[in-house]
Amino acid sequence: PSNDRVLNFSAGPSTLPLSVLEEVQRDLINYKGTGVSVLEMSHRSKPYDAIIRDAEATLRRVLNVPSNYAVVFLQGGGTGEFAASYLNLFASKSVRAKQAKLGRALSCDYVVTGSWSKAGMKEVQRLGGHVNTVIDGVDGKYVGVLPVSQWKLGKPEETAFVYYCDNETVNGVECRPETVVDAVDPSVPVICDMSSNMMSRPIDIKRFGAIVAGAQKNMGPAGVTIAIVRDDLLERDDDPAVLHNLPSVLDWQYYNKGGSMPHTPPCFTIYVCGLVFKWVEKLGLDKVEQLREERAKIVYDVIDSHPEFFKGPVNKQYRSCMNLVFNLPTKELEAQFVAEAAQQNMIQLKGHRSVGGIRVSLYNAMTIEGAQAVAQFMQSFYDQHRQ
Ligand code: PLP
User: Quick one: which atom of ligand 1 is closest to the CA of 194?
Assistant: First the structure.
């Protein structure tokens, strides 16, 4: 029964709104009188076409996507988009023309604020791309964003794009998009990985060349990736060699032309995402933003009341509202914290395996009561273990 559910603080895949799960459950076996489940439905059928078109239309309304931006659902996760961002941009007419003018390969600017932007950069290096590291953390640590005056941006005429990650899920560092888009020459497209904070607040999409995100944090279950791409970056010249390095499954234009279904899409995942988008639309994105700040404040207030016990590494200005990370005085206490929380039905509080510590992920579907419960648990854990 639904009242046996635990509080799930997973960094992703993460908790979904209960009302969405209930709707899925209601419609699971026989979707709205079609006689089949969405799990079994042909993606070429009328009911499925309505599902995917509705999901796209709702996403466009919720995020206020300008009409000159394509929205595509594809696969390969956030990781697939590390390669896709680079390969699609280098297939675009504008980047190729700029490169021809320069007479050598353009470089790709990476603003590295944590392990996911670093992973995106490494993928480009793996594919043989030229990378320019604009910043790499703050004094080698992923605890914030260096002031723009210290950034080493490439020259606009030598740069294909600037890439950053708006919310670093592992390190708990969240940018304000303005920090990046204001710093970059308007002729250079900004590509942003918003896997872990898309749809948690309004964004000014027209400031970006492309925004990419895996769905499995705020937007739905795992299995679908969303790319929002400015039209001009999809333009190609006629030379067939343009496509030699771009597999179809990473090609944004292939998906755009095929209505996100040039081949079998992750049908069920997109259906559930569509229901989540509706849930967000009903709340309103401004309200969603207000709630995300409220939830995060409840937990950060406990951290800030006992900074010698809850050691948050991230500079306050860049602390994430989605993934709140901290350390306890010892590793033993951290293990005990995670175990005792689990006994009280609060799961997935362990930090990412690469950094350790504790991570409390508070995505859209986490309730205020859920945030209060973990904050109360933190306070009582402190009361028991303070020195
Ligand atoms: N980018 C960010 C910000 C992430 O949080 C993740 C995964 O957690 C990824 C990229 C990689 O996504 P995926 O696991 O879908 O490949």
Answer: 3
Residues 272/51, Cβ–Cβ less than 8 Å: no
The domain spans of the chain are: 27-281, 284-385
Domain 284-385, CATH number (from 3.90.1150.10, 3.30.10.20, 3.30.70.240, 3.60.150.10): 3.90.1150.10
Fold for 27-281, please state it.
Aspartate Aminotransferase; domain 2 (3.40.640)
* pLDDT tens digits along 9-50: 999 999 999 999 999 999 999 999 999 999 999 999 999 999
Residue 75 Cα to ligand 1 midpoint, Å, equals: 12
- ipTM summary value: 0.99
| 169 C-alpha to ligand 1 centroid (Å) | 8
Distance 86 CA to ligand 1 centre (A): 16
Q: Is 82 in the pocket of ligand 1 (CB under 6 A)?
A: no
All residues at 6 or more sequence positions from 383 whose CB lies less than 8 Å from its CB, including other chains: none
Ligand 1 atom nearest to CA at 12: 8
* Structural tokens at position 45: 């059928």
Ligand 1 neighbour 79 (Cβ under 6 A): yes
Say whether 284-385 and 27-281 share the same fold.
no
Q: Measure Cα distances from 261 to 212, 242, 258, 386 in Å.
A: 18, 22, 5, 56
